[in-house]
Amino acid sequence: MKKKSKSCMRSGNRKMLKDLLDFFLRLNSPGMFIGLDTKTIDRHIKELNEHRWFNSLYEDENYRKLFFTNLQVRHYLESKRRVNKMINNPLFREKFIIFLEKQRKR
Q1: Comparing C-alpha atoms, which of 49, 51, 89 is closest to residue 68?
Q2: What is the model's pLDDT at position 7?
Q3: I need a labelling partner for 60 at 20 to 30 A (CA). Which of 3, 31, 94, 100 fits?
Q4: Using the 8-state DSSP alphabet, how is residue 3 labeled?
Q5: Cα(52)–Cα(106) distance, rounded to whole angstroms?
Q6: Other beta carbons less than 10 A from residue 78's beta carbon
Q7: What is the CA radius of gyration of the chain?
Q8: Would you say the C-alpha torsion 7, 9, 15, 21 has a positive or negative sign?
Q9: What is the pTM for the complete model shown?
C-alpha cells in the first residue's frame, strides 16, 4: 500500500474545508448564500401555480418579476418545506404574500 504525499493530503483537506465552509455559509447566512438551485425553484413555482391563490399572484406582472429576479424570493421558493407550508397553511400563505409585498416595494 502506497503512502499519500503530504501535499496530496493537504489539498484534499483544503477541498474538504472549502466544501464545509460553503455549506455553513449557505446554511447560516441567507444574505450570503453561494447559489440557488434554479431547477428546484422552477419546479416549486410550477407546483404552486396549480393553486388558484398563487396563480393570481403569478399572473400579476409585478409579482411574477419577483419570482424570477429577486434573490430573496427565489431563496424562499427554493425550500420544499416552505412551499408545502404555503400549499397547506393559509396563514403561512398570507405571510408569504406580505413578504412578497415588502420585496416588491424595495
Answers
A1: 49
A2: 54
A3: 31
A4: P
A5: 26
A6: 16
A7: 19
A8: negative
A9: 0.66
How far is 23 from 50, CA to CA, in rounded Å?
A: 32
Judge whether 65 and 59 are in contact, CB under 8 Å: no
H/E run at residue 80: helix 80-88
Give strand ranges (E) for 54-104: none
pLDDT in tens, the chain (106 residues): 555 555 555 667 777 777 666 666 555 555 554 589 999 999 999 999 999 999 999 999 999 999 999 999 999 999 999 999 999 999 999 999 999 999 999 8
Amino acid 25: pLDDT: 58
Asked whether the beta carbons of 63 and 43 are under 8 A apart, the reply is: no
Q: How far is CA 95 from CA 10, 53, 70, 71, 100, in A?
A: 47, 13, 17, 18, 9
> What per-residue confidence (pLDDT) applies to 104?
94
Largest CA distance in the chain: 65
What's the rounded Cα separation, in Å, for the pair 67 and 81?
Answer: 17
